[in-house]
Design brief:
Blueprint (H helix, E strand, L loop, with lengths): L21 E2 L1 H16 L1 H10 L4 H23 L11 H27 L2 H8 L2 H13 L5 H18 L9 H31 L1 H23 L7 H29 L1 H7 L3 H12 L6 H18 L4 H9 L8 E2 L1
Antiparallel strand pairs: 1-2
Helix pairs in contact: 1-10, 1-12, 2-10, 3-9, 3-10, 4-8, 4-9, 5-8, 5-12, 6-8, 7-13, 8-9, 10-11
């Protein structure tokens, strides 16, 4: 990544006395960091919910029901002056139902994985979704991916093998394979939702899109629960933890991330989001005692670098400058 452009020199023609326009890039990146940290805590808090005896279905049902009105409240309060290309139409409800169904499946698979395996491992498996997006794009556009993307894809999944099977495939427990399969299922469904749903974001606006998708996903969850009728095991402690996930790890991080992207752009925000699995790993070690082996740590680093290379033209120097900017004195850059 290239550093922000420098202000014009006073010696340049027509530039004497011009004061550069200052934008709060540092604060924007801090906002994205806060959003990433909050999102990274979702799986960790889910473990505390399960410890109370509540089930995956109970957590998901409450999470959607609590988050839905808060998202629409956000649209009313903050979304009026940030519309998409047009107002929402009936056809958008149909597409929203489809994407909401995919989002529901991604959440169901994700929280099921967290209930079966360690939070850190499930996050790393889920973090491979950009590689799935690459495959979807190649299939959808019927063109072979560039060689660099293929290399990054291979690197990402070599790292994933190290995380899942550091001592060889024969030593992997059946429960780990089962949990990793749920996590990878979440990565696939989330990638499909993200790839095909991104155009709708530009049409109706990101805030309306998030509110619509979460509403449709919540409706899917209610229908699913009416069909399967799995036990919820609701209890006061579990409800409190779930409310925390809904508010602090779902609604608020979205608004923070949206504001950060609006200020600093999606490219830089996506690089900051690479720190999410590392934050989860640290929190899981601190609060749950989860520890990765040395080969798994190597795999974790490999997966992170592979995903970073898939997302952007990635350099360590550029990432270093980006991560340092929110803490720089003044925290401003020239536009």
């Amino acid at each position: 990544m290239t550093p922000p452009p420098s202000p014009p020199s006073p010696s340049e023609p027509g530039q004497q006395g011009v004061t550069p326009v200052v934008s709060p890039a540092g604060s924007a990146l801090t906002i994205v960091l806060l959003a990433t940290a909050a999102l990274a805590m979702k799986g960790l808090l889910a473990k505390f919910v399960y410890a109370t005896g509540m089930t995956v279905d109970g957590l998901l049902l409450l999470r959607f029901l609590i988050a839905m009105p808060l998202f629409w409240l956000g649209v009313v309060l903050f979304g009026k002056n940030r519309p998409g290309d047009r107002k929402m139409k009936l056809v958008d409800l149909a597409w929203g139902g489809l994407y909401g169904g995919l989002f529901f499946l991604a959440a169901l698979f994700d929280f099921t994985a967290v209930s079966l395996i360690e939070v850190t491992v499930s996050r790393i498996v889920l973090f491979t979704f950009p590689a799935v997006v690459m495959i979807l794009e190649a299939l959808h556009k019927r063109r072979f991916p560039p060689f660099r993307q293929i290399v990054c894809f291979v690197i990402t999944y070599v790292g994933l093998v190290l995380v899942l099977a550091p001592g060889g495939f024969g030593e992997v427990s059946q429960e780990l394979w089962y949990g990793a399969a749920w996590a990878f299922g979440s990565a696939v469904t989330y990638a499909i939702y993200l790839y095909f749903g991104q155009r709708m974001i530009t049409v109706i606006g990101s805030m309306h899109f998030a509110a619509l998708i979460n509403t449709m996903a919540g409706i899917c969850m209610v229908i699913y629960q009416l069909i399967v009728q799995n036990p919820l095991n609701l209890n006061v402690a579990g409800i409190m933890w779930t409310a925390g996930i809904s508010i602090f790890c779902t609604v608020i991080p979205f608004f923070l991330l949206y504001e950060g992207i609006r200020r600093v752009g999606a490219t830089q925000a996506s690089l900051i989001s690479l720190s999410g699995p590392a934050m989860t790993f640290f929190a899981a070690w601190l609060f749950l005692g989860e520890v990765l082996t040395v080969p798994q740590l190597v795999g974790f680093v490999v997966v992170t670098l592979g995903v970073a290379s898939l997302k952007n033209s990635f350099t360590l120097a550029g990432l270093g400058r980006l991560l340092a900017r929110p803490f720089a004195s003044g925290g401003t850059s020239q536009r």
